[in-house]
Specification:
By secondary structure, this protein is mostly helical. Strands 1-2 form a two-stranded antiparallel ribbon. A hairpin with a 2-residue loop joins strand 1 and strand 2. It is globular, with a radius of gyration of 18 Å. It binds 3-methylbut-3-enyl trihydrogen diphosphate (2 copies) and magnesium ion (3 copies).
């Protein structure tokens, strides 16, 4: 195992422990349903990005952990909703049957909303425990709301609903806007929250935001590629969904090879954005890992 993989494993283990503490089982079906999706695995890329951005800016990762867990809860809620029959109608996620398949659509809706609300609650609790200043907590909540709401995931998912065969407006520019809102916005939030937790300066924050924007777009294009060339075993989700739902992706417009070139270009751009950081190795390796990921 190399240095990058070792630290990645340590981050993932720390995030899983923190999530367990933030959402312990209480014997109710609602909490079981929330924990079912939250603790089902997942790469934990978003919280890892937050923790590392905080560390790279000289902060203490303990202060970033509430933000990291909030992001993972919001991300998990977005996956539960993305899989619902009225959205992508998927029955496999993180290698397990989707939330609505196990708990029913009504409970899946409530579990998603429960995770979303818990995300904000735990940021406020972190302020009450003195882990975050009031100003940092408030700034963080604003970032989380912005990335998840009508300028972020929600708008991206609505645009994605308009990504249908008969819509002549769907071109590369349209796809870029979907990807920016449904995926990059959250990755940018991850970087920004790490910066807030570290009290990073404007230059550091701007550089990491640009880095996250580039890996965010690359991440969703790679997801679209893996929807064609990936395996369900490795991905833990159904493959071929975009084609089945007649959704256009970067692969339709440019083919797999050129789309992967675009992922590589974005990865190189991301690395350039953090050129000035003295301790950038992990972030460089993370970008490269995501560029070639198979899951
Ligand atoms: C899946 O996100 C949704 C996309 C934005 C493509 P991830 O690929 O990060 O899923 P998990 O968290 O590892 O399950
Ligand atoms: C969903 O994009 C991104 C979210 C904001 C949830 P996809 O629909 O392509 O994600 P997967 O492939 O189901 O993970
Ligand atoms: Mg979707
Ligand atoms: Mg989907
Ligand atoms: Mg996909």
């Amino acid at each position: 195992m190399n240095e990058f993989e070792k630290r990645l494993d340590e981050y993932v283990a720390a995030v899983n422990t923190a999530l367990e503490n933030y959402l312990p089982a209480d014997g109710t079906k609602l909490t079981d349903s929330m924990r079912y999706s939250l603790m089902a695995g997942g790469k934990r890329i978003r919280p890892v990005l937050t923790l590392e951005c905080c560390r790279a800016c000289g902060g203490n990762i303990e202060a970033a952990m509430p933000f990291a867990c909030a992001l993972e809860m919001i991300h998990t809620y977005s996956l539960i909703y993305d899989d619902m029959p009225c959205m992508d109608n998927d029955d496999l996620r993180r290698g397990k049957p989707t939330n609505h398949v196990v708990f029913g659509e009504d409970m899946a809706l409530m579990a998603g909303m429960g995770l979303y609300a818990r995300a904000f609650e735990l940021v406020i609790e972190a302020k009450e425990r003195g882990l975050l200043s009031e100003a940092s907590a408030l700034k963080g909540i604003k970032v989380l709301l912005n990335a998840s709401g009508a300028n972020g995931i929600v708008r991206g998912q609505v645009l994605d609903m308009e990504n249908i065969d008969s819509n002549p407006e769907v071109d590369l520019d349209f796809l870029g806007r979907i990807h920016k809102m449904k995926t990059s916005a959250m990755l940018e939030a991850c970087a920004e929250l790490g910066c807030i937790a570290a009290n990073a300066d404007v230059d550091q924050t701007e550089a990491l935001l640009e880095y996250a924007k580039a890996i965010g777009l690359a991440f969703q294009i790679r997801d679209d590629i893996l929807d064609v060339i990936g395996t369900s075993e490795e991905m833990g989700k159904t493959i071929g969904k975009d084609e089945k739902q007649s959704k256009k992706t970067f692969v339709d417009f440019m083919g797999i090879d050129v789309a992967q070139e675009k992922v590589k270009d974005l990865t190189l751009n991301a690395e350039k954005c953090i050129y000035g950081f003295p301790d950038k190795e992990f972030l460089v390796s993370l970008a490269e890992f995501l560029c070639g990921r198979k899951h």
